[in-house]
C-alpha cells in the first residue's frame, strides 16, 4: 500500500542545543492530538527525516548552474541532495516552517533551502511559525514576502509568533523535546492559535475535513 506523502516541517535552526527541536516536537504533538480521529490526514515529519539517510538537506549556498525557475523535473538538478529535496516538496500536500529570527531576519540556511527550488513551491500551502525575543516578527514579515511574492506559494493564515522567555534565550533553558509542552508553561498561551492555524492548514489540503 502506498504511503501518503507527509507534510514536511522545515526547522530554521541547525545549532545544537536549540529551541527549535523542542518547538517542532510541540507542533507535531498538537497535530497528532488534532488528527487522531481523522487518520486519513497526512502526518507531519521533520524535513530532515524525509531525506534518504545518506543525504543532507541542501542548506548550503545555491550552486546550481541553472535558475530553478527553468527546472521542471527533479533529475534536472545537478546534485542528489537537491534532486531529493525537489521530490519531497513536489509531493508534499503543504509545508510548515518553524524558525527563529536571526539578526532581524531569516536564518541563512533556511533561505538557502527555499532558494534551491522554485516551481515546486508554487501554490503550495504554507504555515509559518516564528520565534524569538519578540516573536520573531521581522523574520515573519520577511518570510511572508519570500513565500508569497518570491516563491508564489500561499500562506494558510498569518504567521504564528512565539515569544521566548528570557531564560530560553540568554539562559540555559531550552524547550523540551520530550515533555510535549508540559515543561514549558509559556507555550500554553499559544495552543489555541496553533490549533486554529492547523485547522487552516487542514482546510487548505482537505477542505471537506474542516468545519
Ligand atoms: C545568530 C543569532 C541571531 C539572533 N538574532 C535575534 C534577533 O534578531 N531577535 C531576537 O529576538 N532573538 C535573536 N536571537 C536569539 C534567538 O531568538 C534565540 O537564541 C533562539 O533560541 C534561537 O533559536 P534556536 O535556539 O532554535 O537556534 C538570535 C540568536 C542567534 C543565534
UniProtKB/TrEMBL annotation:
Superkingdom per UniProt: Eukaryota
Molecular function via GO: FMN binding; oxidoreductase activity
Pfam families referenced in this protein's UniProt entry, alphabetically: FMN_red
GO cellular component: cytosol
Domain NADPH-dependent FMN reductase-like: 9-155
PANTHER family the record matches: CHROMATE REDUCTASE (PTHR30543), NAD(P)H-DEPENDENT FMN REDUCTASE LOT6 (PTHR30543:SF21)
Protein name, as recorded: NADPH-dependent FMN reductase-like domain-containing protein
Record organism: Meira miltonrushii
